[in-house]
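Worked example 3 (structure in, sequence out).
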């Protein structure tokens, strides 16, 4: 039976006994270019399984199909892979159906137990369930609360046994599996993740942000993760996949010269950057440099001044340039924009008068920010009459275009941002 679900994908299903051997053929991308240009939501919709298939397929065959889900790798494009897997289960009807069946988890565990861990680091064929990302995908499914809830205590012990066995086998080949050797299970603390070292970094105005120093992937995982994104999304590669930093760290920290680290995902931790700190939603239209973009699905990106494309790190995946809506569906397309302060005031002035210019928005006094105002070429153009924390009064006595600047210094005496403004003055 051939079911043409969308212009970009064909679902192939063989109901005879060879299905198990042919499961890898179930998903076939018909038009690669069109597939890559679909939005994240459109990709998910194209992958939904037809009702007549779900109503008749065995749990064993359904597990085999779900194991080959074309978007399986997207769990690692989020800042929390458990959230990524939960999003996948909720939005892909194949996984939703499998997780609702009493025997669904055990059929998936049976499939997992039969996967052979790679022993040769130089195997070139990555289209296998033995690959690091695919194994991790199935392990995350098996340890998700939705699937675990199907198991009794004896079955949970079986799950732990196979996870431990696979972890032991993967440790023998770190050139392939480093970074995805084992995971922290919700049903057992015996399996540990990689060593991630807790650290503290600071916002521009010295608020503490929780972060981690993380070990890097193997070169195999880096390659596989990078290619999964490039093969499925119309993006421009800037840097390969990495486990050492994420989207939040790149957009808010590394882009301003901060150290390489992984910022704890979303919530109050990240919001320190725009709460009583340097960045805000106030846009005066003359902000320079980067605009920070926050997707409601917990993703951060940079928008460069004068361009329509964003730059962002996709979870543990690569750093890419992309259109605002060319992102995994879990990010959502609801976005909030955050800007650095800007100087506001009269853009056109007349000579012989004093004008007031302000930095906006004014950062609260308890943020310990100090303002330094400068008026360039004062001898020719005029002079500063007076200045306060967030404003300056300038007398203009000569025509031309000269520059006003305001530098913001934090409590450690470091200049964290400089805003500029150029009023146009008439000649006598």
């Amino acid at each position: 039976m051939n079911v043409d679900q969308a212009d970009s994908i064909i679902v192939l299903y063989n109901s005879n006994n060879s299905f198990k051997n042919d499961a890898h053929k179930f998903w076939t991308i018909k038009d690669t270019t069109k597939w890559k240009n679909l939005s994240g939501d459109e990709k998910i919709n194209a992958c939904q399984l037809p009702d007549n298939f779900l109503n008749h397929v065995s749990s064993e065959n359904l597990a085999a199909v779900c194991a080959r889900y074309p978007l399986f790798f997207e769990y690692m494009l989020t800042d929390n892979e458990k959230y990524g897997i939960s999003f996948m289960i909720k939005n892909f009807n194949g996984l939703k159906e499998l997780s609702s069946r009493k025997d669904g988890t055990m059929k998936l565990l049976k499939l997992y137990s039969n996967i052979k861990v790679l022993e040769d680091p130089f195997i070139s064929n990555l289209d296998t369930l033995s690959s690091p990302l695919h194994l991790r995908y199935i392990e995350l499914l098996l340890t998700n609360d939705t699937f675990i809830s199907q198991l009794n205590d004896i079955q949970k012990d079986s799950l732990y046994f196979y996870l431990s066995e696979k972890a032991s086998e993967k440790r023998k080949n770190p050139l392939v599996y480093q970074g995805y050797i084992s995971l922290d299970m919700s049903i057992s603390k015996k399996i540990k993740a990689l060593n991630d070292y807790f650290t503290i970094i600071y916002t521009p105005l010295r608020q503490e942000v929780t972060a981690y120093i993380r070990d890097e992937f193997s070169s195999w995982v880096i390659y596989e993760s990078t290619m999964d994104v490039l093969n499925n999304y119309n993006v421009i590669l800037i840097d390969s996949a990495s486990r050492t930093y994420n989207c939040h760290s790149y957009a808010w920290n590394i882009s301003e010269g901060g150290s390489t680290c992984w910022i704890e995902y979303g919530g109050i931790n990240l919001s320190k950057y725009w709460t009583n700190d340097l960045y805000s939603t106030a846009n005066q239209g003359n902000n320079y440099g980067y605009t920070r973009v926050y997707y409601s699905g917990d993703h951060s990106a940079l928008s460069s001044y004068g361009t329509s494309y964003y730059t962002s790190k996709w979870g543990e995946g690569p750093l890419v340039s992309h259109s605002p809506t060319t992102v995994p569906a879990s990010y959502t397309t609801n976005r909030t924009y955050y800007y650095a302060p800007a100087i506001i005031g009269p853009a056109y002035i007349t000579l012989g008068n004093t004008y007031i210019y302000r930095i906006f928005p004014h950062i609260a006094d308890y943020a310990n920010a100090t303002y330094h105002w400068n008026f360039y070429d004062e001898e020719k153009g005029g002079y500063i009459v007076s200045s306060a924390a967030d404003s300056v009064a300038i007398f203009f006595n000569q025509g031309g275009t000269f520059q006003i600047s305001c530098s913001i210094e934090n409590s450690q005496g470091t200049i964290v941002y400089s805003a500029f403004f150029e009023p146009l003055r008439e000649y006598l």
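Notes: The chain is about 30% helix and 25% strand. Confidence is low (pLDDT under 50) at residues 1-8, 186-193.
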